[in-house]
Amino acid sequence: xxxxxxxxxxxxxxxxxxxxxxxxxxxxxxxxxxxxxxxxxxxxxxxxxxxxxxxxxxxxxxx
Length: 63
Fold this sequence. Notes:
single chain
């Protein structure tokens, strides 16, 4: 009986959740945005690698 009452009191939150659903960001053009972001990141990585290769490429390692 106590377990049933606990379940019923926990169900009181359901009405609040159903009346105000979470607003999710739009997924329109999601793949296009992801592709553009990946291309931008790849350009940044390759440019920083090239810059560091030019900067440190001819240095000899001491070990």
